Each structure stands twice: as C-alpha cells, then as structure tokens.
Amino acid sequence: MIAWERVGEELDAFGCAVIPGLLALDDCRAAAALYERANLFRSRVVMERHGFGRGEYQYFSYPLPAPLEALRSNLYPPLAAIANRWQAALGLDARFPDSHAEYLARCHAAGQVKPTPLLLRYRAGDYNCLHQDLYGELVFPLQVAVLLSSPGEDFDGGEFVLTEQRPRMQSRAEVVPLKQGDAVVFAVNQRPVNGTRGVYRVAMRHGVSRLRSGTRHTLGIIFHDAG
Ligand SMILES: O=C(O)CCC(=O)C(=O)O
Ligand SMILES: [Fe+2]
C-alpha cells in the first residue's frame, strides 16, 4: 500500500516525495535488463550529443511492457487528485480526468501520441543536467522515477537532485536519497507554494549528479505523451 496522504503532503511541502520499495528487487533487475532489448524502444538518446549531460536513455514504444503499462495507469489516479488540488490552488480551471486512459485520449487528440516512459543508463562519469520533461502543450504536473540499481553496490554518486526556482529569489536544491526499488514523485514544472501573501508558483527542474563508479539504471514514468 502506498501512503498517498503522506505523499501528497510531502509534494505540497517540498515538490517531491519518496515511495519506498515501489518495485521489488527482482522487478528492478528485470526492468534494467530490458535496456538491452532494442525492439522495445522507439528511440535512443545519447545525452552528450544534445548537451543534456552524459549517459543515455531509451523511450519505450507502444504497447508498453504489461507491468509498466499497469504501473503507469495505477499511479495516475492518486496523482491526478493531487494535480487537481494544485490546479485549484493555482486558480486554474482545467482539471485532469480520473483515468489515465482518458488523459491519454486527450494527449492523442492534441497530437501528443508518442509514449514517454523511458529507461536511463548511467556509467562512471555520467550525469543528467537539470531539465524538465515537457513534450508539448499538455503537461501532467507530476512524474515518477524508480531507481532500479543499488546505491553503494551497483554504483556510487549519481544522486537524484531537484531545484526549485522561486520568483525573484534564489533557487533551493533538494537531494533525494533513494534505495533500489524506491520511487521519487516530483513536480515536472510548476507547483503552488503557500506564502504569507497567498499562493505563488515555483518552477522545478530535476537531474542526476555525476556517477563516481558503476552503472545506474532508472525507470522514468511520465504521464503525458510527446508530440
Ligand atoms: O535517472 C534519474 O534518476 C532521473 C531520470 C529522469 O530524468 C526522468 O525520469 O525523467
Ligand atoms: Fe527527466
């Protein structure tokens, strides 16, 4: 069982929350091994070629592997409830539908048809520059990354980091400690913050610090599709 109430509170307070042990260790190993199965993916990105960092990732093709499809659609409804709370706090009228199938139908109708779940692979010296996974007008405001490798065992360094850009203020950084199988839920872009003079928005970015040794795999679950 996922403690969604705590996850929601931490997202409200910090823009990120950990779900401990979202995947069992066997499932982590199985998911990381998919990286070698080129036929499962629609494209491969070598980060250095684009100035995104160092390391690589691949976007899955549709149909997604069944466990990934299930994870994406099962995580969506509780996250949509949080996202809708954020929409209200920001004074925005649009609401996210209850099911991921409905949300994807909206993405597809808007021309965002390409699947966005991805597997990432980092080796010694690799890193992922601070970024936002925006792929078109439709943006689901929360996303999930699952650490598939074991820190201190499979790799060292390579920490998940977030920054929060506050209006006319200095940025705040957050390092998220993860164990193998843990997931981090975080804001894709903007989130509401309660200030003394009402709600204001901050913009988040995420990335990964330099790997000191070993190999690190992650599974990224993004809920909007790409144009
Ligand atoms: O490797 C990571 O921990 C971050 C992956 C990432 O950028 C993502 O899932 O969008
Ligand atoms: Fe990302």
UniProtKB/TrEMBL annotation:
Residues making up the signal peptide according to the UniProt record: none
Residue span, Fe2OG dioxygenase domain: 113-226
Pfam families: Oxygenase-NA
Top-level taxon in the UniProt lineage: Bacteria
Keywords from the named record: Iron, Metal-binding, Oxidoreductase
Presence of keyword Iron: yes
InterPro entries: DUF2086, Oxoglu/Fe-dep_dioxygenase_dom
Family note: Belongs to the iron/ascorbate-dependent oxidoreductase family.
Name listed for the protein in its UniProt record: 2OG-Fe(II) oxygenase
